[in-house]
Amino acid sequence: SAGNIVMALMAAAWIPLWFFLNLYLQQILKLNAFASGLALLPMTVTIMIVMVGFTGKLVAKYGFKANLLAGLISLTVSLVLFSGISTGGSFLVSVLPASLLAALGMSLAYIPGTIAAMSGAKPEETGLASGIVNTSYQIGSAIGLAVIALLASTITKASIANGIEETQALNDGFKTAFISAAIVCGLGFLIALVKIKQPK
Which of 121, 178, 195, 199 could form a Cys-Cys staple with 129, CB 3.0–4.6 A? Predict the structure, then answer.
């Protein structure tokens, strides 16, 4: 279903975001593993607060499609912001604003995406539908990370071959990863916009 495709694309954007953001923090901003873990904490806290405290109420008020679209566009914009990272970046400017926007986007999109993917299932099929949603998400995250990692490493190797310094070459790869994930997420937004119907 369109909902399952959207969930797969959401995962294919979200998991590379976490992966490459961690690499950027450690390899470009030179934070150690503990500090980079702390740097990701605001995202985790935002997701917990918004998902637990607000998403259900927003879905009840505006419907799942509006929240799904708002979440996907927020996640896409955050990835576009991340594609502007530089070797001279900082946590407060390069990471924190975009990461909070990403967390907000995922908080708004994940539950509505699950609802959208399961909305066509008959009551006796909900267990199967739930399994398919989870599988779609896992497959999307695995394929998305594999393809985007390949793109990023190809760009980094090409930059090094052209005589660009290693840190800058890594940054070039990371920028490619973020913009690729933004394209994937934007595609998810378009499919949700066109194909997912909000029940009356």
Answer: 121
